[in-house]
Design brief:
Elements lengths: L2 E5 L3 E7 L15 E7 L1 H11 L3 E8 L5 H9 L7 E3 L6 E7 L5 E6 L8 H9 L6 E4 L4 H10 L5 E4 L10 H10 L2 E5 H11 L1 H5 L5 E5 L2 E6 L10 E3 L12 H14 L4 H16 L12
Parallel strand pairs: 1-4, 1-8, 2-6, 4-5, 8-9, 9-10, 10-11
Antiparallel strand pairs: 2-3, 6-7, 11-12, 12-13
Helix pairs in contact: 1-8, 3-4, 4-5, 8-9
């Protein structure tokens, strides 16, 4: 069992589905269904890692609505509460996710309490004990991602998955996290957002490896130049019946990290990520699928 710190957010997801494709020009949709689920990328990753048998410690802030329901869910799935800090007088983060018939999603995200005045102190507290075997920097405000990545240097595995924040970052914010982390995991849209800011050649020639997902398309693995070994690879994604893509990327990251901690090569680890993402894809919500047999 490894000990992993996952920096990011705790949120509630309001997920709506409608029976039409989501196009760039879509302005109005009639929802066929709407439900609320537990979410937040850090919490989604922690849920999957705990299901894979690890001690997952999310570093997140929760508002007044971190109710007994979410707290019970966390405890019942073996997720550590050591890094879940409550901030009174504010609601938790909220993801408003609209999913079209083609599986394409539009997400509006309210970041909730950021811990701006206290996160550095809280992060030091979490790092004051036994070292973490791995640190995952999930989507969060730029300053926190940079700070968490810099503080993670003692951990052997340091993964950055910027998610929806990729298109909001400036080059001066991206470069430090790339320097401190030794694996970048993005989807194709996020890759392009980073490339627009730092240059695609810079990303492709970086010393550390990169994994690029592309929905139902193959996963691209760029080995990085630090080791001087390995070649770029593509890992196929088998077709599966899709129910809800919410949280699939987080499931992918968790299984990828688990496989790497068990000594797998990067393409094999990506294949493990694909398998767990497929399980998530076949369930509604990001924290309702069965992680392990």
């Amino acid at each position: 069992m490894a000990r992993l710190l996952i920096c990011g957010t705790l949120a509630y997801d309001d997920i709506g589905y409608f029976d039409a494709p989501l196009h760039a020009g879509t302005r109005n949709v009639k929802l066929e269904s709407l439900h609320r689920d537990f979410g937040g990328c850090a919490m989604n990753i922690a849920y999957n890692l705990a299901g894979l048998g690890h001690l997952s410690v999310p570093f997140v802030y929760a508002g007044d609505d971190y109710s007994a329901g979410y707290a019970h869910h966390v405890a019942s799935h073996g997720i550590s509460e050591a890094g879940i800090y409550r901030v009174p007088g504010t609601p938790s983060a909220r993801g408003i996710v609209l999913t079209g018939a083609d599986g394409v999603q539009f997400t509006a995200f309210y970041p909730g309490p950021s811990g701006t005045e206290r996160w550095q102190r809280d992060l030091e507290e979490l790092h004051s004990g036994e070292p973490f075997d791995a640190v995952i920097i999930a989507p969060d405000l730029a300053g926190k991602m940079v700070g968490c990545a810099a503080r993670a240097r003692r951990s052997a595995l340091r993964i950055w998955c910027p998610g929806q924040y990729a298109e909001l970052l400036e080059r001066a914010e991206i470069e430090p996290v790339l320097e401190h982390c030794n694996l970048l995991v993005v989807n194709r849209h996020e890759w392009q957002a980073l490339a627009d800011r730092v240059g695609e050649s810079r990303l492709r020639q970086r010393a550390q490896p990169t994994v690029i997902t592309d929905g139902a398309g193959p996963v691209e693995v760029l080995p990085g130049t630090a080791t001087g070994t390995g070649r770029a690879a593509t890992v196929p994604v088998p077709a599966v019946a899709a129910t809800d893509p919410t949280g699939c990327g987080d499931a992918f990251v968790a299984a990828l990290a688990d496989a790497l901690l068990h000594g797998a090569e990067l393409p094999s680890a990506a294949a493990a990520g694909i398998r767990l993402a497929a399980r998530c894809l076949q369930c509604r919500g990001a924290q309702s699928h069965r992680v392990a047999d």
